[in-house]
């Protein structure tokens, strides 16, 4: 018998090598190369092969189909109007955040108009039935199928021809054709690819659940995100009751869109007006400011809080929740150099209330003003919103979606906005104050 050919595959990035190495030369991770059986490569192309289908672009248009509603208006909006036939959506989130709950509820809504196949590799049918009972779900057209074998799943999908497929989760399913164990890079890639191919072929939309690694990225290589059409990130504090679905990638709509849900004992409930929800408990004290956050078309008003107190230890602490601590360090340095606001002997805490995490630089000015407010022990007028990027020289830079942010602030009764000077937008009944430097912003507010 000929020697079986093997190769070593990096479980972090998918890099392949003929010999074992301690460190992956591609991504630099240690101890990530594991031995896997070499197999003829399947081509990762979702375009039907062989057929010569050369059509004018306008003719292709005709093959597009209507959007399918998930049953949740805000989720439909975030997806760009609902699901498209053959669309494969990867939904990733930390353990216990509510992925299975959300998908079971979406399945129930879609089961009202067709057959839904929910394949579970993580939980038994009984476990899912228990959850379904708690959520009040008992539809006869919602089929639960506990299975981890990809070949058998494929067969059942072909036989049942569901109008929605849910695979919970990609990491638990394996193909018989590969030697490596479920959850390995090759398996995850193969499963995602084959399911995607099947769904495209049959025109079925699908949700795939993706587990998340300790570092917070989707387990499996980047290639997974390339294969699917849409990537949703399911976020929120586990101990908090709200959850956010963020669109990270979308071939059928814009990214940065969000949908907000509330976790109750009856499952996830839509929060149609997230702004009202996030600012409902706003503190009226120094260190608190409202920041209109958006990375897409849907803005949310968030409360940014800061606490500046004399340092407890010789090394002052900088702690953040929902905000990048490195970015905070930068802002504190800028405040010190450019506005003579000294925090070097103080502990500084920054918290985005409600637990939502903000990554966009537009939050810089809001964070800076919250810090100054706490340091000076002077309250920022409660009818004011603040946004703008802060540069190293203390300059306030323009940010995206200024109009969307201002309109949302207006809608919720805010009458003043501190914004980058480049913003030339008039909003009726709103005092829009343009500033070009942090010191100017401090003067305007305090
Ligand atoms: N009896 C209950 N009452 C209220 N909430 C519950 C109840 N049981 C579970 N939950 C909520 O549902 C969450 C678990 O949801 P779910 O199983 O959908 O998460 P998941 O993201 O699929 O997790 P995993 O990655 O482990 O599969 C819990 O964290 C909890 O918030
Ligand atoms: Mg689950």
Set down the secondary structure blueprint:
Layout (H helix, E strand, L loop, with lengths): L5 E5 L5 E2 L15 E5 L19 H5 L11 H6 L9 E6 L5 H13 L4 E5 L4 H11 L6 E5 L3 H11 L3 E5 L16 H18 L3 E5 L12 H5 L2 E6 L6 E9 L7 E7 L2 E4 L3 H6 L8 E6 L6 E11 L7 E4 L3 H15 L6 E7 L11 H13 L7 E3 L2 E2 L5 E2 L4 H10 L4 E5 L10 E5 L2 H8 L1
Parallel strand pairs: 4-8, 4-9, 5-6, 5-7, 7-8, 15-16, 17-20, 20-21
Antiparallel strand pairs: 1-2, 1-3, 9-10, 10-11, 11-12, 13-14, 14-16, 18-19
Helix pairs in contact: 9-10, 10-12
This protein binds adenosine-5'-triphosphate (ATP) and magnesium ion.
The site of adenosine-5'-triphosphate (ATP) has 13 residues, from helix 3.
Bound molecules: adenosine-5'-triphosphate, magnesium ion
Into which percentage range does the β-strand content fall?
15-25%
Question: Would you tell me the structural class of the helices and strands?
Answer: alpha/beta
The beta-strand count equals: 21
Oligomer: single chain
Instruction: List the total number of helices.
Output: 12
Question: What is the CATH homology-level superfamily of the largest domain?
Answer: P-loop containing nucleotide triphosphate hydrolases
Average pLDDT number: 89
CATH topology of the largest domain: Rossmann fold
Characterization of the model:
The strands form five sheets. Strands 6-5-7-8-4-9-10-11-12 form a nine-stranded mixed sheet, with helices on both faces. A four-stranded mixed sheet has the order 13-14-16-15. The longest helix is centred in the middle third of the chain and has 18 residues. With 446 residues, the chain is of the alpha/beta class. Helix 6 links the parallel strand 7 and strand 8. The chain has three domains: 32 residues; 206 residues, Rossmann fold; 167 residues, Ribosomal Protein S5, domain 2, CATH 3.30.230. Helix 9 packs across helix 10 and helix 10 crosses helix 12. The protein contains twelve helices and 21 strands. Magnesium ion binds next to helix 3.
């Amino acid at each position: 018998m000929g020697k079986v050919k093997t190769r070593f595959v990096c479980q972090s990035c998918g890099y392949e090598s003929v010999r074992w190495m301690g460190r992956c030369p591609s991504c630099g991770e240690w101890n990530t190369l594991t031995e896997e059986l070499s197999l003829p490569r399947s081509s990762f192309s979702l375009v039907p092969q062989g057929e010569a289908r050369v059509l004018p672009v306008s003719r292709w248009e005709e093959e597009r189909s209507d959007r399918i509603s998930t049953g949740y208006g805000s989720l439909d909006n975030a997806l760009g109007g609902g699901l498209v036939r053959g669309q494969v959506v990867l939904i990733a989130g930390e353990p216990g955040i509510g992925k299975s709950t959300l998908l079971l509820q979406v399945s129930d809504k879609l089961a009202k108009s067709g057959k839904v196949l929910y394949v579970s590799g993580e939980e038994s049918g009984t476990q899912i039935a228990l959850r379904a009972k708690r959520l009040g779900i008992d539809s006869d057209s919602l089929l639960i199928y506990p299975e981890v074998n990809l070949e058998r799943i494929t067969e059942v999908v072909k036989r049942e021809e569901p109008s929605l497929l849910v695979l919970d989760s990609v990491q638990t399913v394996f193909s018989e054709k590969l030697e490596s164990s479920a959850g390995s890079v090759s398996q995850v890639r193969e499963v995602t690819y084959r399911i995607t191919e099947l769904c495209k072929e049959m025109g079925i939309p699908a949700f795939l659940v993706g587990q998340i690694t300790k570092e917070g990225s989707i387990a499996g290589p980047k290639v997974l995100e390339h294969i699917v059409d849409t990537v949703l990130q399911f976020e929120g504090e586990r101990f908090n009751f709200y959850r956010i679905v963020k669109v990270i990638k979308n071939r059928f709509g814009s990214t940065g869109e969000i949908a907000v849900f509330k976790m109750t004992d009856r499952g996830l409930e839509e929060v149609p007006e997230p702004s009202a929800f996030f600012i409902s408990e706003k503190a009226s004290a120094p260190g608190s400011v409202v920041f209109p956050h958006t990375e897409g078309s849907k803005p949310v008003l968030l409360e940014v809080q800061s606490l500046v107190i004399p340092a407890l230890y010789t090394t002052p602490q900088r702690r953040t929740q929902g905000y990048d601590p490195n970015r905070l360090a930068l802002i504190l340095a800028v405040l010190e150099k450019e506005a003579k606001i000294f925090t070097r002997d103080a502990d500084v805490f920054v918290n985005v209330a409600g637990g939502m995490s903000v990554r966009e630089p537009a939050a810089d000015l809001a964070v800076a003003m919250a810090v100054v407010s706490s340091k000076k022990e002077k309250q920022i007028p409660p009818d004011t919103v603040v946004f703008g990027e802060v540069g190293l020289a203390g300059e306030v830079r323009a940010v995206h979606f200024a109009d969307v942010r201002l309109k949302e602030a207006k809608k919720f009764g805010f009458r003043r906005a501190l914004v980058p000077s480049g913003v030339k937008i008039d909003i009726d009944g709103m005092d829009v104050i343009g500033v070009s430097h942090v010191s100017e912003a401090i003067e305007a507010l305090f």
